[in-house]
């Protein structure tokens, strides 16, 4: 991909580990559905989420306090750090309950992520299509994110490409996605 650094490992997590993690996270995570303001209107997000780690997360005027790391998430963080040679201090969990839950086109370019963030995404459960679209050329790329896949976005990816997880008409079960991020709180930035 031009002007991007993307690494896709479809069978990254061993199947038994992926199965155990999917079951545990699906059942035990305190999932929340939050409102988002779009074009001056407030609607519910088409997915559930949970936020863990060392720093709060601010988006669309909402600040989410972090939940403390769990043993499962710390273990997964260590494995993701070993695979990517990067460090992470927070993780966003998204639960797509079925094919009608989705995430629209966006960049992960919030100020607290800094310039050229490395974001590591682990997928569990139902396979879903993940799309990239170049902001200028409109060129598209597609990856299938299946149970146990690791997708790493780094370098200039968030500057030049948007990404999305589209709805699907197919009958699909639940999918959980975890994006590990390094957040620098605003108080620590100049
Ligand atoms: O569910 C996914 O694979 C993508 C999630 C995402 O882009 C995000 O949380 O910012
Ligand atoms: Mn994103």
Automatic annotation (TrEMBL):
<protein>
    <submittedName>
        <fullName>Alpha-ketoglutarate-dependent dioxygenase AlkB</fullName>
    </submittedName>
</protein>
<dbReference type="InterPro" id="IPR005123">
    <property type="entry name" value="Oxoglu/Fe-dep_dioxygenase_dom"/>
</dbReference>
<keyword id="KW-0223">Dioxygenase</keyword>
<dbReference type="GO" id="GO:0051213">
    <property type="term" value="F:dioxygenase activity"/>
</dbReference>
<dbReference type="Pfam" id="PF13532">
    <property type="entry name" value="2OG-FeII_Oxy_2"/>
</dbReference>
<dbReference type="InterPro" id="IPR027450">
    <property type="entry name" value="AlkB-like"/>
</dbReference>
<dbReference type="InterPro" id="IPR032854">
    <property type="entry name" value="ALKBH3"/>
</dbReference>
<feature type="domain" description="Fe2OG dioxygenase">
    <location>
        <begin position="87"/>
        <end position="184"/>
    </location>
</feature>
<keyword id="KW-0560">Oxidoreductase</keyword>
<dbReference type="InterPro" id="IPR037151">
    <property type="entry name" value="AlkB-like_sf"/>
</dbReference>
């Amino acid at each position: 991909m031009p002007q991007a650094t993307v690494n896709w490992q479809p069978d990254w997590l061993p199947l038994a580990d992926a199965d155990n993690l999917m079951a545990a996270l699906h059942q035990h995570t305190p999932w929340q559905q939050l409102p988002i303001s779009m074009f001056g209107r407030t609607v519910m997000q088409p997915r559930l989420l949970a936020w863990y780690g060392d720093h709060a997360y601010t988006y669309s005027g909402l600040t989410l306090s972090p939940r403390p790391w769990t043993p499962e998430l710390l273990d997964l963080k260590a494995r993701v750090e070993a695979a990517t040679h990067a460090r992470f201090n927070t993780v966003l969990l998204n639960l797509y309950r079925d094919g009608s839950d989705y995430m629209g086109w966006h960049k992960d370019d919030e100020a607290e992520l800094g310039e050229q963030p490395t974001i590591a995404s682990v997928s569990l459960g139902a396979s879903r299509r993940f799309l990239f679209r170049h902001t200028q050329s409109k060129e598209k790329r597609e990856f299938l994110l299946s149970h146990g896949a690791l997708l790493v976005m780094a370098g200039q990816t968030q500057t030049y490409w948007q990404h999305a997880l589209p709805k699907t008409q197919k009958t699909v079960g639940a999918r959980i996605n975890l994006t590990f991020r390094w957040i620098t709180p605003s108080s620590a930035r100049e």
